[in-house]
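Bit of a strange request maybe. I'm writing a small parser for structure token strings and I need a real example to test against, not something I typed by hand. Could someone generate the tokens for this chain?
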Amino acid sequence: MRIEYHRTLLADRVRNSAFYAALKSVIVPGKTTVADLGAGTGFLGFLAAKLGAARVDLYETGDIAELARRLLQHNRLPQARIAQVHSTEVARPDRVDVIVSETLGNYPFEENIIATLNHARAHFLAPGGLLIPRRVEQFACPVISEHFHRELAIWDEVGYGLDFTAAKTMGLNNIYVRWFTPDDLLDRAAAAVAWDEVSFDKHNKTTRTGEARWHIRRPITIYGLALWWAAELVPSLTLATGPLDPRTHWEQLYLPALSPIALSPGQICVARLRSTTSFERGTNVTWTLLVCDGAGRQIAKQALDLEKGFLP
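Reply from user aminoacidic:
Good idea to test on real output. This should exercise your parser:
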């Protein structure tokens, strides 16, 4: 049981207050029924019960469910109940008015929230019901601070007449959790582009693809991409993980370039991204960085794949 991980969740006041506000805005005391999918310690389901939900069903497949059950009893929330099972394994659940699922990672879909909410919308949600979050949008921005690349290129400095280029290449075909300041990013993060959007009111593909492009106006060197997300929980209430947003336990992701990319005014930098996520195989991400001239003709290309970053 990873209790330390759950401590970081409960210590994240930005996250907790956002979900509390979202639940408070939709729960009608004594009437609204709620399901908390991937409940962990039960915090969100407990909030729903405290806010007066008529019934709260918590689903958690991990061993943490037993702790959640003890916490539920200790907090005396009789309208809540816990099932130690993944929600997608429940064929005929009792339908509810509100589904909440905080199964978001640094990469938002790594905990299979798309597949979970696809199933939940079809099997758990009562007519006219709603899901929290409603929508997730993904952003990308070029990284212009050299030290992120220099840290990963340390293989070049092994010395003693040894060449560790193959290890460096493997290391660069990886994704790293980092915190960026605005100065680390193109145009102080104002250049961020939305490359993907998922609205949970419909069935969504678990494979996500998208493209972002930047027209270069001054000489600049790019060392990779920073990724983050914004989740609209309910209308007018968004929880985001970008460098300009209030800090949470989530951080941004660094997708490195294979080598620094020097760009000149008039050129275009293009990023093409693709992710696949499944319960069986986990998450894989590929990213391709292109340099094009002003007419859109390709000048250079770097293609990276997370699967190439793992030892066989």
